[in-house]
Amino acid sequence: MALMPIRIYGDPVLRKKAKPVRDMDGVLSDLIETMVEAMCTNQGVGLAAPQVGKLRRIIVVRADAEADSEIFRLINPRIVASEGTQESLEGCLSLPALRGKVNRHEQVAVEAITLEGDEVTIEATGLLARVLEHEIDHLNGVLFVNRADLDTLCWLVPDTEAEDGYRFEPTTMEEAQRCFERMRRKRQSQGVPEE
Ligand code: ZN
After folding, report:
1. Count of other CB atoms within 10 angstroms of residue 152
2. What's the pTM value of the predicted model, to 2 decimals?
3. Are strands 149-158 and 166-170 parallel, antiparallel or unpaired?
4. Average model confidence (pLDDT) for the chain?
């Protein structure tokens, strides 16, 4: 399967509810591996199928983008328990470089089906719990900006002077929308398909 471009904010597919997977077949494993590739290429920690234009309930997640950490490939995932709260800056590959503070549960338990057809329960805390909630939101057409404190929205800007190699610049949802709209127009003019 060819590398699929990650859909950008404003693409209608990101707002639709994904359908449960009923049949496990070869096409599915191709799709999942394409998603893993897209996540890793973009240094992400998670990706949901709607982000590559497929309205199926499939997510791929990992606890760390730096380390060689385990990648979970989850079909029909659902949160069955949650506890505590955590607040942190969050981002999304479909809203490149945008960050905003989002409250999430500190711990979650997620039930899902693996590619082999086995039922699994994943108990996660901290970042992995956050990523699981974020990706499962995608399956319901919900984006992090729908949950973020919009007063905390900012751009992550590369900055060679800064200690971490980047700095934060405050922005607004309106400015971000205009920016993503320009990004989508540019892509459309290059012939990248959308729904
Ligand atoms: Zn996302």
Report:
1. 15
2. 0.94
3. antiparallel
4. 93
